[in-house]
Amino acid sequence: MKRIRSPKKFQSLCLSLRRGGKRIGFVPTMGFLHEGHLSLFRKARRENDVVIGSIFVNPTQFGPREDFDRYPRNLKRDCALLAKEKVDWLFTPNRDDLYPEGYQTFVEPGALARGLCGRSRPGHFRGVATVVMKLLNLSLPSRIYLGQKDYQQALVIRRLVEDFHVPAEVKICPIVRASDGLALSSRNSYLSPEERRRALCFFKSLGTAKEWIGNGERNPRRVRAGIRKILVPGLSRVDYIEILDARDLSRIKRISGRIVIALAGFVGKVRLIDNCVLNVPG
Ligand code: AMP
User: Of 114, 139, 173, at which residue does a domain stop?
Assistant: First the structure.
């Protein structure tokens, strides 16, 4: 695997690959890779001629009081993991490469970005949409691979690709979990062993909610209240518990069709998210 830092050189490389008829599979990440990330790279490897990843902790998607400075980083380890997955190229720009002095253009996503994490993290999806637009224009992928773990983010990016006529296919891949059910996340590395045990309440509450719905419960308010009871003892603060239409994140009065249960909350000082998408009959 080769590493490349300069956006110009990276774009020339991708242009010449596309001109040579290669299909590029692209996986954007913020690094500190785990099996969740690697599952995206493996799928990209199966479906494309060339696999390209990026590692960039994007400052514009972090709020002023968020964890940008202490976000976990280990480029050496990440490179070794990606080389093992037979990734061809890794783009690792630094901040000034993507946001040089005088930079002033941003992508503003719409309604999809307003609720859930968009409400608790103002400006977050503006930063995400902006950096992803840049990465798409540089990597010129045939397919871009995203995780369902960040469900709202995946929908915002799918919309961005559609709205800006980006000629790439968006692939949303399943959540990879630890054997006890905790959704893998780079931020799990912040958790003490005791906090990690408490974080399991996300997975537990999703499983229980699934059971209730399986047994015929169709009232979102009751399911949300039940989830809250499971989350409250484990979390220092619940951020949101939402049951929404999985296609556009709009509110629903009754649980039916394709729905997403989306959760966010703090374990100690660490903010975690989780979700599940269900196809509910009638
Ligand atoms: P990040 O490095 O957190 O920005 O994540 C990069 C990509 O990996 C995003 O598309 C995430 O949704 C995806 N991802 C993160 N965690 C997981 C997971 N546990 N399972 C599947 N995909 C994931």
Answer: 173
Task: Identify whether 178 is part of a domain.
Answer: no
Cα 211 to Cα 207: distance, rounded to the nearest angstrom: 6
In SS3 terms, 25-39 reads as: EEEEECCCCCHHHHH
pTM value? 0.98
What spacing in Å lies between the alpha carbon of 218 and ligand 1's midpoint?
30
Per-residue model confidence as pLDDT tens digits over 161-172: 999 999 999 999
Place of tokens 């903010």: 271
Q: What is the DSSP string of 112-159?
A: GGTSHHHHHSTTHHHHHHHHHHHHHHHH--SEEEEEGGGHHHHHHHHH
Q: Which residues are catalytic?
A: 37
Q: Are residues 234 and 163 in the same domain?
A: no
Tell which one of 38, 39, 40 to mutate to probe ligand 1, the residue whose CB is within 8 A of the most ligand atoms.
40
Residue 214 and residue 271 share a domain: yes
Whether 254 and 186 have beta carbons less than 8 Å apart is answered as no
pLDDT class of 58 with cuts at 50, 70, 90: very high
The answer to whether residue 124 sits within a structural domain is: yes
Ligand 1-lining residues (CB < 6 angstroms): 29-30, 36-37, 39-40, 146-147, 149-150, 173, 175-176, 183-186
Residue 89 belongs to a domain with what CATH number?
Answer: 3.40.50.620
Q: What is the pLDDT of residues 183-201, one digit of tens each?
A: 999 999 999 999 999 999 9
